[in-house]
């Protein structure tokens, strides 16, 4: 089950980030990441108070958070990438598995609920910061509104990609992803950790652009659906990934990050490769079974050739793992090419 409509990542105008502090340093590369060294509490405290703004709401954080709660996988993984698990009191709501490089850090934090916790369970851990990927986390039955949290002394931050008002959402770019990471690093008092993430991911994207593993390939990004395919469209994470590897998205003309398409158009496009989003509500295996079991779809070149690329859903949404998703797609495309 998807915890928020995919449409929450369909984005338009830039969200404002008001940051106090500077940016700067490190996470190791994606294969050998051991996490950044924590800042000393004294140094972090000297950076406060700070203000962070998203979705038209500004919160003032008076001191480094010590009992933060992250809701939704994207928010949790930004926190883990910044190495602030020792400042967290809980997490909730995953779409798929936490990657191995952050597994130990994730295991060190209490999981409050498989999906959203009740408001009572959330408040029981006395959070001083609630950070979420989707506006649904600030429902009255979950965290409560951001204004209510502020009145009770709890700061909050909502991913700009999850703003309820379309006008508040940024265009889906890697720059916008990095802006969110900068804001969260500032909120946690570790602004020096976001710059290295930005630098490392840009270097990775430059490498992928040079290799051009997707050049001359027409690609279908198949998210879910059987009667009607839900596909990666021209304005979200899937398009950013396909652009990063130099591939052509057969549904780039559709608006938004994801959109309903038609099997007739899929058949007409006859893609060279099919990227399969792997998630709890729609596994890659389920989609392959549907494609290969359908008398028409089974005749697509990509299906007959087994030209599948599998990407965890969390590597297809604008967030800290999107560059890893692009790298994975590139690697798998190269493997497919080597089979020919």
UniProtKB/TrEMBL annotation:
Residues 26-45 are annotated as: Disordered. Pfam families: Peripla_BP_2. Keywords: Signal. Residues 1-25 form the signal peptide. This is Iron complex transport system substrate-binding protein. Residues 67-340 form the Fe/B12 periplasmic-binding domain. Belongs to the bacterial solute-binding protein 8 family. PROSITE patterns: FE_B12_PBP, PROKAR_LIPOPROTEIN. It comes from Nocardioides cavernae. Coiled coil: none annotated.
